[in-house]
Amino acid sequence: MEAAKKAEREYKAKHPEAQRLRVKADVAAYKPRSKEVRDVPVKAVSMFLSDPATIHLSNASLAQKLGTHVAAKLPANILTERFSPKQKERVAELLRLRRVSLDLDVHYSPSKVKLALKANDSAEEAHQKVVVEITFTDDVVTVGDRAYPIQRGSGVRRIHVGKSKLNVDVLKALVEHSR
Questions:
Q1: Fewer beta carbons below 10 Å: N end or C end of the chain?
Q2: What's the rounded Cα separation, in Å, for the pair 135 and 118?
Q3: Crossing angle for the helix pair 59-70 and 40-50, nearest 10 degrees?
Q4: For the segment 43-92, what is each residue's pLDDT rounded down to a tens digit?
Q5: Is beta strand 156-161 parallel, antiparallel or unpaired with respect to 151-153?
Q6: How far apart are CA 19 and CA 137, in angstroms?
Q7: CA 60 → CA 81, 119, 142, distances in Å?
Q8: Three-state secondary structure along the chain?
Q9: pTM for this prediction
Q10: CA dist 152 to 159, 171, 176, Å?
């Protein structure tokens, strides 16, 4: 702190126009992170890729899970910190090996990668194709090997699927339209 104050005085002596400027110098002391803790962001991405269920965990749960591997209590915000250049290289290599394409300038933290993988997972689920046989009779709609009795109410033919009512004529029109 004394060196910073001395440098300020010397600068202002040489540059009188800087007399009105204020200088704030802070000193911070911290314990450097261990190598194991510095590897946590890469291990998190590796875990997302090897165990897709982990993308649905909260950052706090993930930090707790990852903390057991480094024998330290990790804060949840470790997953929102930007990748260092070296971590970014290692994550890019992991993604390349798994044939996952992500822009690490946009997805710059483990949490951002997790959200992108979660979105990809949801998109894959949304594109599932189902092939099933549907048969319509006057009294029953059969989907696969399950029969649904047709009920009539207010002049509309319906089947009950769980707690929902499905209009049989609309279903039939959808099936015929998709042929």
A1: C
A2: 37
A3: 110
A4: 999 999 999 899 999 999 999 888 887 777 888 899 999 999 999 999 99
A5: antiparallel
A6: 93
A7: 14, 20, 47
A8: CHHHHHHHHHHHHHCHHHCCCCCCCCCCCCCCCCHHHHCHHHHHHHHHHHCHHHHHCCHHHHHHHHHHHHCCCCCHHHHCCCCCHHHHHHHHHHHHHCCCCCCCCCCCCHHHHHHHHHHHHHHHHHCCCCCCCEEECCCEEEECCEEEECEEECCEEEEEECCEEEEHHHHHHHHHHCC
A9: 0.55
A10: 9, 15, 22
Say which amino acid occupies 121. D
Report the distance separating Cα 157 and Cα 144, nearest Å: 20
Q: Are 134 and 142 in contact (CB under 8 A)?
A: yes
